[in-house]
Amino acid sequence: MNPDKPTGLVFLNMGGPDSLSAVRPFLFNLFADRELIQLPAGSLLQKPFAWLISRLRAPKVRLNYAAIGGKSPLLDWTVKQCEGVATLLGEQFAPYVAMRYWEPRADECLRQMKQAGIEQAVVLSMYPHFTGATTGSSLNDFAKAAARVHPQLEYTIIRDWYDWPAYLDALSNRIREGLEKFHELVRDEVCLLFSAHALPQQFIDRGDPYLDHVQATVDGVMQRLGAMSHALGFQSRSGPVKWMEPDTLDELDRLAAEEVPGVLIVPISFVSDHIETLQEIDFEMRMHAEKSGLPRFERSPSLNDHPDFLEALAGLVRHHLETIS
After folding, report:
1. Which of 197, 274, 299, 320 is labelled catalytic?
2. Domain 165-299 fold
3. Cβ(252)–Cβ(219) under 8 Å?
4. Residues linked to residue 264 through DSSP beta bridges, in sequence order
5. Catalytic residue from among 83, 141, 280, 305
6. Strands across the sheet with 154-158, in order?
7. Considering 27, 36, 192, 316, which one is annotated as catalytic?
8. Is 273 a catalytic residue?
9. In the chain, what are the domain boundaries?
10. Is 0.90 surpassed by the pTM of this model?
11. Average of pLDDT values for 209-237?
């Protein structure tokens, strides 16, 4: 990478519908991705399956998005994060965002860089923990689009950062903020329940490193927080396949049965607020926790655009560029 040339800073993320009318086509794009969902019958049925399942699920999902403002906030947060990190890195860096399943897609991102005359870039996956289902799919999509739209672009990739010390520091800081919601007399007895997005178990069985990465993040955070009760669960499971266990809801039931005074949910695989935090955790899980008899249920703040998180990502980019120079 030439330090004297302008550099694109590209953040890759899943994306989300930007209106209620976009929910169904967003779901179609999601379920049509064979790297995320692989039907045993092969690729021939992938698009018909995506059409059917998006049609069936759209009404309920549309209600969920309506409950959080009528759209996903993921793009807004990703843009703020990318712009913030680019500012910290210096005027050489120009921020760009590429979403996997909704606008702006990788093609548009690359067209913008080409028009701006940017011929080198750092591509950062906004999934800290690597899995072929998300990071792998986004990177492959970007590579195909680059070859098609901007073949002159030279780029380097940061594909995971689950154990980056400054990221673990920022996540630990959010947990400390979350613990402040509990009275000091019970704070030490609160259980931290880390909640990561689930994957079908077949991904882990075939050697995907996602589970190892998530567990390493939990270990790194707990080294910073000290001796506290903690557990790990997996959320957002759907469909008739075997999923990673335990389910976060089952862990809430277990903790309620053990009569813990409170639970602080820590969304560990999400670096900004979106449907899984604002609706699934803040509403569905909270209701479940109340029904199960948990005295207190809280969520640690998301990383979003907290200064320590932006500094962590800027440091990550600097470190990456130093290691490849």
Report:
1. 197
2. Rossmann fold (3.40.50)
3. no
4. 192, 298
5. 280
6. 93-99, 7-13, 120-125, 154-158
7. 36
8. yes
9. 7-16+72-160, 20-67, 165-299
10. yes
11. 97
User: Residues 18, 83, 208, 276: which is the catalytic one?
Assistant: 276
The tokens for 204 are 């882990």
Q: Give residue-wise pLDDT tens across range 144-172.
A: 999 999 999 999 999 999 999 999 999 99
The yes-or-no answer on residue 14 being catalytic is yes
In this prediction, residue 114 has a pLDDT band, given cuts at 50, 70 and 90, of very high
Q: Among 24, 74, 89, 100, which one carries the catalytic annotation?
A: 100
Q: pLDDT tier at 37 (50, 70, 90 boundaries)?
A: confident
Mean pLDDT, range 240-255, rounded to an integer: 93
Task: Reply yes or no on whether 101 is catalytic.
Answer: yes
Question: Mean pLDDT for the chain?
Answer: 95
306 is catalytic: no
| Whether residue 254 lies in the annotated active site | no
From 9, 12, 27, 30, active-site residue: 30
Active site residue 24: no
Task: Note the pLDDT of residue 41.
Answer: 62
In the residue annotation, 280 being an active-site residue is answered as yes
CATH level 3 topology of 7-16+72-160:
Rossmann fold (3.40.50)
The predicted-structure confidence for 284-300, as pLDDT tens digits, reads as follows 999 999 999 999 999 99
The C-alpha angle 169, 244, 139, rounded to 5 degrees, equals: 65
